[in-house]
Design brief:
eight-stranded mixed sheet; four-stranded mixed sheet; globular; alpha/beta
């Protein structure tokens, strides 16, 4: 039977986003969608700056801008601006990118049933030529609130759990509320993709995947906050963050490398090339070492890329202070661009401190 690492049920915005992000991380994935083609949906959809930052990671920011009907101005807190784009153009862009990255996208193919064991998921899918089975390490259900996947799991309409062993719910499948936020759905996929990649590659323990529920569908709803805080300053509190400071969203101007928050955007020269610090994050963990270099060699032999402030990264701004550390400190950023851990200053054994932090975050 055909085998893949991740099977995605649903070829709408959420499922195609998951396919792009998984394939970009080097994870083999197959998308099955019962519709024969993408729906013609001429309704404009606003894509917020944080979602545009995610698209920037996978090479789609400029494509989205070109296909948009309008784009806002960028601001000091993000390298990306919000755009308005017709939904079928947006989904078409995602499908093209997923396939270009190596994902298999099969329209006219419906997930009929599945069986999830402790080791894999075996799914029965149907197309015009008949039924066949696909075996996968994991299944992402992105096939909507009234889906075969939810029925197979026996979920009630008010059940918002989003992990069932090797099965994960994303987008409308995870939330049956009436809102239709493509930003939330795409960012669900973003949060889950790097964690699945780390697990299937053997870098992380399976318990890392529990943090998808904790971070994207927490039991404790964050208190109300201004729109820009909820867009760029929301915070994660989970086992994949060491010493998170709570779930109160921060204004973008308040982002200073707080654990659980999106790392701050600072324009820098990276080997003399102008970039945003956000461009450093995507596939790997990244350690930003304070300008004094106390942690310069702490990441050697570990799955982390290390850049030293003032050496690899130069800016008119105080990059140490911008990340909440002294020149002897360090900040560790996850592949999704969120701060996993930081040490404002030096410690006795920097190598062991870094290794311990990664073991904790990756549930090793």
């Amino acid at each position: 039977m055909p085998r893949t690492q991740v099977l995605v049920a649903g070829g709408g915005l959420t499922g195609l986003s998951a396919a792009v992000l998984l394939a970009w991380h080097g994870v083999r994935c197959v998308v099955v969608e019962r519709r024969a083609e993408l729906l013609a949906r001429p309704t404009p959809r606003t894509v917020n700056p944080r979602t545009m930052e995610v698209l920037r990671q996978v090479g789609l920011e400029h494509v989205a801008v070109r296909r948009s009907d309008s784009a806002a101005e960028t601001s000091a807190v993000s390298p990306c601006a919000a755009v308005s784009i017709v939904q079928d153009r947006f989904e078409g862009m995602l499908r093209e990118r997923a396939e270009a990255l190596g994902a298999t996208v099969s329209f006219g193919t419906e997930l009929k049933s599945f069986n999830a064991s402790a080791d894999s998921v075996t799914a029965t899918v149907a197309e015009d030529e008949g039924e066949y089975t696909i075996e996968a390490d994991y299944l992402i259900a992105a096939d909507g609130a009234d889906s075969n996947t939810r029925r197979e799991l026996g979920l009630a309409a008010d059940d918002h759990r989003c992990r069932f062993g090797r099965v994960f719910l994303a987008g409308k499948s995870a939330s049956t509320m009436p809102h239709d936020s493509g930003d939330i759905f795409l960012q669900d996929a973003h949060n889950l993709a790097w964690k699945l990649a780390a697990v299937v590659k053997g870098m992380a323990g399976p318990a890392l995947l529990d943090t998808y529920q904790t971070e994207r569908h927490p039991d404790t709803v964050p208190p109300p906050a201004p729109v820009d805080a909820m867009t760029l300053g929301f915070r994660y509190c989970s086992e994949a963050v060491i010493d998170p400071g709570g779930n109160v969203a921060l204004l973008p101007s308040q982002l200073r490398g707080q654990p659980g928050s999106r790392a701050p955007h600072v324009p820098v020269a990276f080997f003399n090339r102008p970039i945003s610090t956000l461009d450093l994050y995507g596939r790997d963990f990244v350690a930003l070492v304070g300008s004094a270099g106390a942690w310069q060699h702490a990441g050697e032999g570990l799955p982390v890329r290390t850049y030293r402030i003032g050496t690899h990264l130069r800016s008119d701004a105080d990059l140490d202070a911008a990340h909440g550390i002294t020149p002897d400190g360090i900040v560790l950023i996850r592949p999704d661009g969120f701060v996993a851990w930081r040490s404002p200053g030096p410690v006795t054994d920097a190598t062991e401190a870094m290794a311990k932090a990664l073991r904790t975050i990756l549930a090793r």
